[in-house]
Specification:
Radius of gyration: 17 Å
Largest sheet: 9 strands, mixed
Helix content: under 10%
Strand content: over 45%
Oligomer: single chain
Number of helices: 1
Structural class: mainly beta
Order of helices and strands: HEEEEEEEEEEEEEEEEEEEEEEEE
Shape: globular
């Protein structure tokens, strides 16, 4: 893909392009709607918001890399954030934490061999978060804990399918927060969730773990 004709952060141009139904892009990082700051320029010291107060999408493909300090999808009430990381070599690196569904809705799809990295992962912090890691070579790696259904009343869903891989060096929590809902599905040969620590199902909420079709959970212990 060649250089795109519009820069993301010329806001008047963005409005015109959006009205025409086209995406705003830079190389193979494609942005629509409420995404800030410009993900083609962020570093490991910049927070990245996809759906801060509105609706935003971010697609990372064709071997591109986006870096951020913390990633937030669906930050405020009524906001939605959707990120797709697609293709071998396509990567989203978060230096610290990745939050999906703060007060809005957040969705992350990793497919086609794409990769996401973070220190801590939170799915459904106070609202609704969903992560799908699909296909051989697709991965989400956390160097500490992963929480599915984290905050009070949060609803988190993690789907690992068709050989996708999720790993965390700490512990895994499914329905960690009070009155939270957490659902983890591991389906298909080669689909794995690897925890160096324990996995807690229904810590303070309603937790569900489903393993089907040759999927695998690896952990020190389950509670």
């Amino acid at each position: 893909m060649g250089p795109c004709p519009f820069m993301v952060w010329l806001r008047r141009v963005v409005v015109v392009v959006a009205l025409q139904g086209a995406a705003v892009c830079q190389a193979s990082v494609v942005v629509t709607g409420d995404v800030s700051p410009d993900p083609t320029t962020t570093t490991l010291f910049d927070n990245l918001y996809i759906g801060f107060t509105g609706h935003g999408t971010l697609t990372i493909d064709d071997g591109s890399t986006v870096q951020s300090a913390n990633g937030y999808l669906g930050y405020w009430s009524d906001s939605t954030g959707h990120v797709t990381v697609d293709g071998v070599g396509s990567t989203w690196i978060n230096n610290t934490e990745l939050f999906l569904g703060g007060f809005g809705d957040g969705t992350l799809v990793v497919t086609g061999g794409g990769a996401v990295g973070s220190t801590l992962g939170f799915i459904g912090v106070g609202s609704t978060g969903r992560v799908t890691v699909d296909g051989h070579g697709s991965s989400w790696t956390n160097t500490w804990d992963l929480l599915v259904g984290d905050g009070a009343g949060g609803e988190g869903t993690l789907e690992i399918t068709s050989g996708g891989e999720v790993s965390n060096s700490g512990e895994g929590f499914v329905a960690y927060g009070p009155d939270s809902i957490g659902v983890v599905t591991i389906d298909g040969v080669g689909s794995t969730w690897t925890n160096d620590g324990a996995v807690f199902i229904g810590r303070r909420g309603d937790g569900t773990l489903e393993i089907t079709g040759g999927g695998k959970l690896s952990n020190r212990e389950a509670q």
